[in-house]
């Protein structure tokens, strides 16, 4: 039992004064930023003392009075972000006093009204993502408003004006008090976050307990990569930031592949992490590791917060950074002593996210090129989905009469059955005289932007994404809704594209007909396309399909159609395997009443098989279909073509991955006869639990690919 102070971590009594984070005796004077007694000076980020007296991060002196977030004393008013005292009203964006009124984007007082993205006063309500005023009633996302329950279950941030955002986000600045973990949870809830994906660790106890008390959904996984992949999946399906909570050291390093994938996919993932205490930094504390140099290359911004009262402001800024085009992951770690210290802080409403406006002249140039081309092609990438621009895409394609292909998460933005939607006849890109690529990089998936003699237009959501490795005839950059709507509004000269469309449609029909023998292949071992042929017959129009694998998923990408935006997830250009179960967790939370199908290669299943346990524990029914060819097919066949043999490309044949799922509490079966695929799939969809159909496929069938990977 501890006497008068908090107990030490190993259970011995702590004497006297207030307890420190490690349970040892805390000094009775104000603490410095490193947890030791403050000698009148603040500490720098690496734990050393900074000159200049008690005070700001920059080392300037603060007045004395009530305790500041770093343990020093401040005067009786709230403190600025830099540690200086401000008077008792809400604060401006630069930390100055805002006379009790909300503030404009430039930091000036806004006469009690919310603000537009460019800093001018807007009337009446919370701000929309484009900076305009949002209505105060129920908000729509890409579908419908979430119900006003304690959780929405998508793990992301609700649109401004939705009931969930209104419930969790304050109408204006307000004070919050608590440990660092409590302040972090308050900040996340202010942004509408209701779900954390995590794996427990001592450095994040404060956040976990605060989240549980706040009624947040906590999805604990078996490997941190799954936590980050699940957050990325939620971000991609909901088009808003989602959060992974990782413990220090190996917790963060285990999540790096997920961060790199989120960066490649432009996904606004917020990774909140623990960190070894500042007061013992350099002494060899458990899991002491400087995460920032490691995560900086795979994030838009990465920071360590050194004052407890700064936690809400840092999360507010980083969440806005993640959500601002071009979107991407961000990282914040909180040292253990900062995490457990108590402080008061101002909790401000979320910052507005305002996509850049495109140059009208560049949009007009792109429109003219497309309209006057003889053989135009439009390619829609994932940023069309991210930017909510699928209706603008349809408007553009229909107005200018342009055959349209989809790339990655752009699938479904123009429904597969639309008269201008094409998928099989991608060789049209080599015949086109103008190719407009909207919302995706000109990378290996698109021949690095080289389409024969075609003039290339690259439309992106931020100027920094314009291709520089190939010449472009136009490159409009900014909000893709405005880019595509602006192109659709072209009123100048145009060519007749109908003969070109008819030619491609005939080619498309012929190529689809040529697929039938593989889709219906009767032989054994089972052709991988036969598995997909049987699946197509049972997929609902709004099924969410996830791919995690090489050759088997390549077949799925070619043979499966997408009818709605936001219903296809694959690894993206980083090509990292092991994402599948994390994405499936996200899909089931986001769409509890739809089919969720995870297509796996047998190699890919090995990366995250343990997280079937997560699906079972959290009662998340997912249908998993493994194309089990006993090897790394994506490597095996190209290696044979190059060298005449293959090396390190075999797995154990006929492995019973269904028994792995059964051992973890799910269900499943192995299929060796193509006639048994359909009944197995019916049982899987009816099971109401995680169910794996392990289909033994022909190891000699190689997926035919023409793309140059590098």
Q: What is the 3D form?
A: globular
The chain-level mean pLDDT equals 82
**Main structural class:** alpha/beta
Q: How would you characterize the largest beta sheet?
A: 6 strands, parallel
Q: Give me the number of helical elements.
A: 23
Poorly predicted regions are 1-170
Percent of residues in β-strands: 5-15%
Across the major sheet, the strand order is 3-2-4-5-7-6
Layout of strands and helices, then pairs:
Layout: H1 163-168, E1 174-179, H2 180-190, E2 195-198, H3 205-213, E3 217-220, H4 224-238, E4 242-246, H5 250-253, H6 256-265, E5 269-275, H7 291-295, E6 301-304, H8 311-323, E7 330-335, H9 336-340, E8 342-347, H10 360-372, E9 376-380, H11 382-386, H12 390-400, E10 404-406, H13 428-431, E11 434-438, E12 455-459, H14 480-488, H15 498-519, H16 528-536, E13 544-548, H17 551-559, E14 568-569, H18 580-590, E15 596-601, H19 602-608, H20 612-617, E16 623-628, H21 633-643, H22 657-663, E17 667-671, H23 677-687, E18 691-696
Helix pairs in contact: 2-3, 2-8, 4-6, 4-18, 10-14, 12-14, 16-17
Short key terms for the protein model shown above:
single chain; 710 residues; alpha/beta; six-stranded parallel sheet; 13% strand; globular; DHS-like_NAD/FAD-binding_dom; thiamine pyrophosphate; metal-binding
């Amino acid at each position: 039992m501890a006497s008068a102070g908090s107990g030490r971590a190993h259970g011995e009594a702590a004497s006297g004064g207030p307890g420190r984070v490690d349970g040892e005796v805390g000094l009775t004077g104000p603490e410095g930023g490193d947890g030791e007694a403050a000698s009148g000076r603040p500490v720098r980020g690496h734990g050393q003392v900074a000159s200049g007296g008690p005070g700001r991060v920059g080392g300037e002196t603060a007045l004395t009075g009530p305790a500041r977030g770093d343990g020093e004393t401040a005067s009786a008013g709230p403190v600025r972000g830099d540690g200086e005292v401000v008077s008792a009203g809400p604060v401006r964006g630069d930390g100055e006093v805002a006379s009790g009124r909300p503030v404009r984007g430039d930091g000036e007082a806004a006469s009690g009204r919310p603000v537009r993205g460019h800093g001018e006063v807007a009337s009446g309500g919370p701000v929309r993502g484009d900076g305009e005023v949002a209505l105060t009633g129920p908000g729509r996302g890409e579908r419908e408003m979430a119900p006003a329950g304690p959780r929405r279950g998508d793990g992301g941030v609700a649109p401004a004006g939705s009931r969930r955002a209104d419930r969790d986000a304050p109408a204006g600045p307000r004070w919050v008090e608590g440990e660092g973990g409590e302040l972090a949870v308050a900040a996340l809830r202010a942004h509408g976050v209701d779900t954390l994906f995590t794996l427990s660790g001592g450095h994040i106890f404060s956040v976990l307990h605060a989240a549980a008390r706040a009624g947040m959904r906590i999805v604990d996984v078996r490997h941190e990569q799954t936590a980050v992949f699940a957050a990325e999946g939620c971000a991609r399906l909901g088009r808003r930031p989602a959060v992974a909570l990782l413990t220090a050291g190996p917790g963060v390093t285990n999540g790096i592949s997920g961060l790199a994938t989120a960066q490649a996919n432009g996904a606004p993932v917020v990774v909140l992490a623990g960190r070894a205490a500042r007061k013992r930094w350099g002494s060899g504390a458990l899991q002491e590791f400087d995460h920032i140099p490691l995560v900086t290359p795979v994030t838009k911004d990465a920071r360590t917060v050194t004052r407890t009262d700064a936690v809400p402001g840092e999360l507010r800024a980083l969440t806005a950074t993640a959500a601002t085009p071009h979107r991407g992951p961000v990282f914040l770690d909180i040292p253990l002593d900062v995490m457990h210290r108590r402080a008061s802080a101002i909790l401000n409403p979320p910052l507005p996210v305002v996509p850049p406006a495109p140059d009208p002249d560049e949009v007009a140039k792109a429109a003219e090129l497309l309209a006057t081309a003889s053989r135009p092609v439009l390619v829609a990438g994932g940023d069309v989905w991210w930017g909510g621009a699928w209706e603008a895409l349809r408007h553009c394609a229909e107005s200018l009469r342009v055959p349209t292909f989809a790339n990655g998460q752009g699938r479904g933005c123009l429904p597969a059955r639309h008269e201008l939607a094409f998928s099989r006849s991608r060789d049209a890109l080599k015949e086109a005289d103008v190719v407009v690529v909207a919302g995706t990089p000109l990378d290996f998936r698109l021949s690095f932007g080289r389409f024969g003699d075609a003039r290339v237009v690259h439309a992106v959501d931020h100027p920094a994404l314009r291709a520089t490795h190939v010449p472009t005839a136009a490159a409009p950059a900014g909000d893709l809704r405005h880019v595509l709507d602006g192109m659709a509004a072209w009123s100048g000269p145009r060519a007749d594209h109908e003969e070109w469309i008819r030619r491609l449609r005939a080619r498309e029909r012929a190529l689809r007909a040529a697929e039938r023998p593989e889709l219906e292949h009767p032989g054994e071992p089972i052709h991988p396309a036969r598995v997909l042929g049987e699946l197509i017959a049972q997929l609902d129009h709004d099924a969410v399909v996830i791919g995690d694998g090489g050759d088997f998923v390549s077949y799925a990408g070619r043979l499966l159609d997408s009818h709605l935006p936001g219903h296809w997830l694959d690894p993206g250009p980083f090509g990292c395997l092991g994402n599948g179960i994390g994405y499936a967790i996200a899909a089931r939370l986001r769409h509890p009443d739809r089919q969720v199908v995870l297509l796996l290669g047998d190699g890919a299943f090995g990366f995250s098989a343990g997280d079937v346990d997560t699906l079972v524990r959290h009662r998340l029914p997912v249908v998993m279909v493994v194309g089990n060819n006993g090897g790394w097919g994506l490597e095996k066949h190209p290696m044979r073509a190059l060298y005449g043999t293959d090396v390190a490309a075999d797995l154990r044949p006929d492995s019973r991955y269904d028994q792995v799922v059964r051992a973890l509490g799910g269900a499943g079966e192995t299929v060796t006869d193509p006639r048994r695929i359909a009944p197995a799939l019916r049982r899987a969809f009816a099971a109401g639990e995680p169910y794996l159909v392990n289909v033994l496929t022909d190891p000699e069938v190689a997926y035919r690919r023409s793309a140059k990977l590098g």
